[in-house]
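Researcher: Here's a chain I'd like modeled. Treat it as a single chain, no partners, no ligands.
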Amino acid sequence: MARTVVVFGALGFIGRCVTAALGADGWHCIGVDRYGRATDGPGDVGGPYYSGDDWSSLALSRFLRHCGPAVIVNAVGASWSTDPSVVRRDNVVWPCRLAEACERSGTTESILHLGSSHEYGDTAPGVRVSESSALAPLTTYGKSKTAGASHLVRAAYRMNRPVTLIRAFNVIGTGHGTNGIWASAVGLYRAAEEVGSDQVVANVPLPETARDLIDVRDVAGLVSLAAGRPGPAVAAYNAASGSATSIRQLFDAFAARTGIPYRFGQDPGGLRTGSQWQCADIARAESHLGWTRRFTLTDSIDTALARERTAAAALG
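Model: Modeled as a single isolated chain. Structure tokens:
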């Protein structure tokens, strides 16, 4: 009989891929969106799972008891660009309520939480950050992710259940949204292809800024592996490519795939700068879980642009 996993945030950018990966790996996967609507389970949450600022641990605990023994995956989270009050609600208050519900239900087998590379804070150029590195978040977003994870860790400790933290670096892929350098590049090249432009102009403040880019499908694969092997009381894994890609290299890759050259403009627009270097050590996920990255940057670009072309054709 298939084991049960409950994925909260199942309709989000990462959560959707996580749900698909777990189902493909044989899990009985119950997906729940932020409004408490559930798929393939014992009905919806049936209470104010989310209504304004109300996150009900009582309604959640009843729902979890109905699901039976299960692994709990938290893929809910506000992005760095969201209003600070929403960041706190989704990244701090929600994990606190989920932690309470896991304890109340008595059916939690283990917890897996999607965290962020921003929990590490600034990283030194040329140095790959490992899971044993000290957490030193500097931004409101990074601090919120660290605080949210701490609620789930403490709950797991009190239940004597394992908890796994997946710290995702710069996740790219289809369905990413509209914020960030990846979304900007996809949008610019999609528009250029649509109108037949012979050049893309990108307003980027620091083209040599480097990020560790990882396809959302590889993140989902790591989550599925980790869910099946919870390991010690607290385990942490970096979800990343293990290599740093500059913004210039990212646009080089888009230009190579599309044949459309680019140039950088002088107006940074709404793009944030942040740390100028970010790269992860992924040896732990490879050695402990046997995880390997399947999708290259070129694969991600091909998939994203193909999806955008399909969507544009449907609208046309």
